[in-house]
Amino acid sequence: MSQVGAGKTVLVVGGAGYIGSHMVKSLLAHGYDTVTFDNLSNGHRDAVLGGHFVHGDLADRELLEDIFEEFDFDGVLHFAGSIQVGESVRDPQVYYDNNLANTLNLLRAVRRGGNPKLIFSSSAAVYGEPRQAIIDERHPCAPLSPYGRSKLMVEQIARDFAQAYGLRVFSLRYFNAAGADPDGDLGERHAPETHLIPLALRAAFAREPCEIFGNDYSTPDGTCVRDYIHVADLCEAHRLALEYLPRAGGFHVLNLGNGAGYSVREVLSAIEWVTGKTVPINLGPRRAGDPARLVADAKRARAMLGWRPRYGAIETIVAHAAAFEQRRHQHRRAAG
Ligand code: UFG
User: Fold this and answer.
1) Cα dist. 158→68, 126, 189 in Å?
2) Does residue 143 have a cis bond before it (omega within 30 degrees)?
3) 18 is catalytic
4) pLDDT in tens, 88-114
5) Edge-first strand listing for the sheet containing 262-263
6) Nearest CA to 279 among 203, 333, 174?
7) Ligand 1 centroid distance, CA of 8 (Å)
8) Which of 38, 59, 65, 160 is deepest in the core (most CB within 10 A)?
């Protein structure tokens, strides 16, 4: 493994969560020193496989200042945030507190830290209802939920900070993050879990049905189409962005996806093929706020960063997630 990060220290906010924990592992493998900052509201301490760990909340400005005082960061990656679209509609305060106000605290600290480089986890949710089949970064942003709006607001603030204070920022708009660590050390452990792949895997292993949210969309089989991107490929894009930032001034937005769409039914078929088990399903109504189709044009990330996703096949994404979920299922059964 290359040691491009030797001598460099990176702050990973939300590094105990799903994507953040994979990121910490990848950074350590590339020679970086890491400081994980997490309030453990959704993350898991045992998912942080090395480096320093600070148990803290972004609402605590004093603690943030202390950390920036203690360490000289070469970059900051911000994964912490609330991620459920439906919940954000019911309880927007949480989303504007966590995703907007707390991120403003972080931006303030990054700005004062002296080496202002930030990689922000944004989302395809900033686009809203797609106007075309494949979405590039020039697609208008009209988010449909407080979740999407909170991400877009941070992007707008970060752009202003880049212009006024010289911050160097990549805002990475994820499509559907999925899969698990190819070595099997880490995976998706949200509570509650709302994402299709882990829920459908649990349904296959536990023989309890999962629900398909709507089969009357204007897609080939009537179910929603999404662009699933392997968590390891997402992390690789972050690492490349981190290495690019010293050369790049200003604020940059990049889509991260494979550019290939799979319907809910196609994902379930891939799960059945990979696990050899049937996924029991119930057909349910549409879930509010779900666009029919969200597929990325991620050519800009490829051109700018030289990023090449390695695990684009849906079967590979599902196989890695299945290996992790099967172990959890066995543990749950052993625990009774
Ligand atoms: N789905 C089901 N049944 C389930 C869960 C999901 O049919 O039990 C369907 C959804 O309706 C959707 C697809 O499976 O069509 C994928 O749903 P996920 O919940 O896995 O992911 P989303 O596309 O809703 O959301 C993800 C991220 C969001 C982000 C969004 C942007 O979780 O944070 O992608 O594209 F905003």
Assistant:
1) 19, 15, 29
2) no
3) no
4) 999 999 999 999 999 999 999 999 888
5) 262-263, 225-226, 293-294
6) 203
7) 36
8) 38
Average pLDDT, the chain: 95
Lining residues, ligand 1, CB within 6 Å: 83, 85, 123-125, 175-176, 194-196, 199, 210-213, 224, 226, 264, 287, 290, 294
Give the closest residue to 22 by CA, choosing from 4, 52, 55, 44. 44
In the numeric block, which tokens belong to residue 127? Answer: 């686009």
Rounded to whole angstroms, the Cα distance separating 46 from 78 reads 19
Annotated catalytic residue within 147, 228, 244, 262: 147
Q: Give the per-residue pLDDT at 1.
A: 61
Using alpha carbons, select from 213, 217, 230, 185 the residue that is nearest to residue 281.
213
Q: Are 181 and 257 in contact (CB under 8 A)?
A: no
Report the nearest-CA residue for atom 10 of ligand 1.
Answer: 213
Record the tokens describing residue 2, joined without a space: 């290359």
Q: Which of 48-52, 191-195, 257-261, 300-304 has the lowest mean pLDDT?
A: 191-195
Token output for 100: 């907007």
